[in-house]
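G., before I forget:
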Amino acid sequence: MVTPQQVRAAVESVYQAESRRILATLIRLLGDFDLAEEAMHEAFFVAVERWQRDGIPANPRAWLVSTGRFKAIDGLRRRARFDRSQAQLILALEARQEDDVNDEELEDDRLRLIFTCCHPALAADAQVPLTLREVCDLTTEEIARAFLQNPATIAQRIVRAKAKIRDAQIPYQVPSLAELPERLDSVLRVIYLVFNEGYSASSGDQLMRNDLSDEAIRLGRLLQQLLPDPEVLGLLALMLLQASRQAARSDEHGDLILLDEQDRSLWNRALIAEGSQLVQQALRTQQFGVYSVQAAIAAVHAEAASAEQTDWEEIVGLYDVLLRGWPSPVVELNRAAALARRDGPQAGLLAVEAILARGQLQDYHLAHSARAELCRQLGRLDQARDAYQTALGLTAQGAERRFIERRLSEL
Amino acid sequence: MKYLCLVYCEEGLLHSQPDSPADAECMAYFESIAGSGRMLAAEALKPVQTATTVRVRGGHMSLTDGPFAETKEQLAGFYLVDARDLNEALNIAKGIPAARVGSVEVRPIRELQT
């Protein structure tokens, strides 16, 4: 005989561990997000009473999936008495096999859910909230708080996205091998957006923001388990290596501390070890992409005892790889900064000025800050001052403005 | 489900770009989709100056010369296809030769409730 407390504890722990898997499977079996969500909650509700009476089932997950599906079809049947158009839907749902609720299929359902929530046919600003809501089980209010948005706005984006999935018949499936690279890009982009939203301390409720980074890393781990593509490993590594610096990257006022000036004893060694190992694994495949190379750069920084002892030769080389495959002026700017460390400020300054002379990055404050810093190192103080002033005029962000003003006053 | 793929393009560019499709290529693509059993109908349209817009208000018909909306890109043609789901419809849309110079809007067809 089980006590009511034991039943409640069991239901709660199954919800914690399995609710996303159960939801993902019910969406496949019922073909509708809202119907599946309703069915799942009903199944958990029924479980409290049934498990008390009949005991906790051997496979609670399968029990909940099957109860949820039964409840949903039953509900539709009751409604069908008033609405004849439902009858066909019910037949179709009943015909759908349930015998494939084995573990492998369940994991595939989670992957299907991720790919559907990040489908490029959905509005870009809906993919992130939909993923956080359906895959991570964050509430609309939590998502709104993290993104400094009105909960009604977030709710509306989610409703619209679900309506498009239903009405345009976006399939609930893992893309074919031919489509995979493009579709995976979209999933990785959503995860990295969630991570960066949490990681950049520019605005919002700080506590909620750390949760977002953790959530992104959890998503990365899930994807690593389900689909260990080199770029999945690369993105997870990049997030872990960036997160390893969390405790060292801002001071007590919340102002950013540059990599060079961070107290490296505060870096999280466990995250660095895991991230570095994943980078190695990704690079060995020879099929890595842009996230893996960025992670490799982060790993070189992470393994150096100080800025001076960093292997700048290696970092410049990795930026060259990045530039060859994914050229962009911002990457070029970062390479110039690394070049300055390897070959001296004069070489770095030439590279920065070459970018600006082409008319690129002229509105990007970091390009002018970099130029200012290199001028300062070369003793060209007037030019440094002018460049810092230009940079100041280009950013409205509080912490960055304070940083530039501090540099100006030190000149 | 049926999907309508609406091909939009600036008419001035449709036939003048290096990447502009020739009619023969469009016909070949039509035939390849027809061969896969997914094709319901497809046509190219004459230029937008030939359009007439019809409205009926309070029982009276009014006619206007020109398209419904003046836009930078005009409706140049359409494909009506029967696809398994949006992914398959998007794959068909991706292959439409005019997608290289214009854009293709993919819209699911609503079945009328009778």
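Residues 244 and 271 of chain A are 6 Å apart (CA to CA). Residues 4-100 of chain A form one domain.

More on Monday.
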